[in-house]
Write the structure tokens for this entry.
Amino acid sequence: MIWKAMRRLGAAFVRTGTRRGEQAERRAPGDAGSLFSETEQLLLEHVNDAVIAIDTGFTVLSWNRAAEQIYGWSASEVIGQSLLEIIPVLRFQGGQFHEEVLAAIYGRGRWAGEVVQRHRDGHELVIDGAAQIMHTQSGRLDVIVAINRDITERKRGEAEQRLSEARNRALLAAVPDMIFRISAEGEYLDFEANDTDRLYVPPATIIGKNVREILPPDVADACCEAMARSLTTGQIQVAEYRLQMPDGLRDFEARMVTGGPREVLSIVRDVTERKRAEEALQQSEERFRQLAENIREVFWVADARTMRRIYVSPAYEEIWGRTRESLIDDKDLLLETIHPEDRERIRAAQERQREGDYDEEYRIVRPDGEIRWIWARAFPIRNRQGEVYRIAGIAEDITARKHAEQERLLFERQLLETQRLESLGVLAGGIAHDFNNLMAVILGNASLALMSLPPDAAVRPALETIKTTAQQGAELPRQMLAYTGKGPSVKEQVNLAVLVSEMERLLKASVTKNVRLRCELAAEVPAIDADPTQLRQVVMNLTSNASEAIGAEQGTITLAIDAVRQGAAEPSQAYLGVPPTAGEYVRLRVADTGTGMDAATRARIFDPFFTTKFIGRGVGLPAVLGIVRSNHGALAVESEPGAGTTVTVLLPAARASAELPPTPKPADRQTVLVVDDEEGVREVLAGLLRHFGFDVLVAADGRTAVDTFREHAADICCVLLDASMPGMSGTETFHAIRGCDRDTPVIFMSGYDERKIRPSCRGDEPTDFLAKPFSAAALHAAVMAAVAPVAAATTDQEPNADG
């Protein structure tokens, strides 16, 4: 093929020399611009081989586009220069030497072989070259024409893979293009094809025939139309068509290039494989689209260079609440939808998307204000060269999972809190039991002594102090038990607004002078079932803490009470105690303008004995939380440094009260059986009861109590029974006594909450319950209510004022 092209170019040189004669003789060295016609120039510019014309002194006369591409030098840089200086010969292949090559050119007039030359950037090129001296008819113009083909890659492949001759022929046959020269009327003038098997018809039948005679009508129409447009516009036109070849249907692409006023070069390429690949790609894309548009996750694809998204699946609109087009048009929109607290973290993480290091969870804010949790992953897509050209990502709505996790964490936290409270409750209960027994002995003896002394006795002030101190001491274990939710309480229906109104003067006196207390009490507030004493403790502790938070600065405490309809609490809401269920609640809010708290302090303010004061017990707020828990309420704290604190307490509104059980009928019996394992408690109770006019029997344990009751059942009008005794427990003793006589009143005594005692009674309720330590007046009232009608409780048998 090289020699064929050489002959064609030689003929061109000869024609040029004959026509131009003396003009060629007078042409300046290096001026080859007039050597070729426009068609020949166009052909030279579209062949894949370097075509170089030099004079006998190796000065470059002509340098085509393929030469520029192969060697890296432009025509303007090399024309007029020495070829040997521009592209020096490094070595000849096949054992040839420079002298042999020159001898062949000047002796035989031509040379062909392989040579190693250097590219402009320094790398070596293996060139399959041919050179021939062209003479004009006058013999006065000698030009050497060299046609060089870059076979570097082919030679490298041969060296590496030892390609067979058949493989080499297949490689040559794989050159995709066939070149046809066609007249404006559609006549085939010439063609160039490495593999004539690619032609639609035998090559001998093409030259001189019209396109419409060779190709099917529809194909001929398309090609003629493209040729006409190319001749008219001077621009490349493309015609695509399909032909039935011996091996089946094949697709072709013809690029029409104007080769002259009345000629077109048709460069035809077999694009069957590309078309099949495109069709397969379209089918694959269609399957992908169907898959992506029917999954619940958001799938997106972005350009790796610009990060502009070129595809977003429909799930985006459902999850984000925005259109897909808005995200495609604005590549920064995604960051704008992310929750402000997560935005900077995700902005930094997005820089790692191109490396595939992107696996993040964040929150988004929908246009309607709803917040959703998203789990997003991204990974790079590489082309055959290993370059990242696409970024694909998947985003999943995990809001439901996050809520489930929050609910689980809340449950675990409540479980741990319950276990901690159980442990503290066991400790506090043990301390309270022994401590209350001691306080009961001290308080009872002080009351008994006061009842026995005349009003002007000198020791009365000392006894009063002992009695008052004992009552105050009894508050310590009650606070510990209140925190664990196991403290004794006497519940009744209480209007919290009325209770706070009655406390208002005391509350204002308890805060510092620089603090203004403002009460906002709703007029209509439902009652709640609670112990009034415990409610006063809650209000007083919260007010005192608010006053201390303000300190020496001027400030305001707002104490507000109203009724609210509460919906079910969200898992993320920071309620302490039992998370409120839907229903009616009485809400107590204590807000101060103090210094506020940070998150670390807020997390510990309800821990026992934690305090931020220089000195202090740190049991006030834990007791508040315990009381709220014991009343099935909830508590929330809102506070930030410098922004004050607001404590909100929710207590369930009381249901309609049930009718009171009938009061036991009075009895003629006047003996009280006292059962307690503590000797001091037995003695002081016996002394008080005798002072009230009762006969007394005592028992140190449950077994002795049952035996004593059976022996004196006819005389016993009431039993005072300690609920916590070793051996035979209080409830076991209770059931044994009831088994002997169901009508005899039994009053339980305990330092624990009566709610812990009642379930063990298995439905057989005791007559009353006294929380240790109790006063002489409380003892007298309970016994009189048990043995006589309610009216008897106001008879002349009331103790004196000291009880």
Observations:
- Residues 736 and 788 are 23 Å apart (CA to CA).
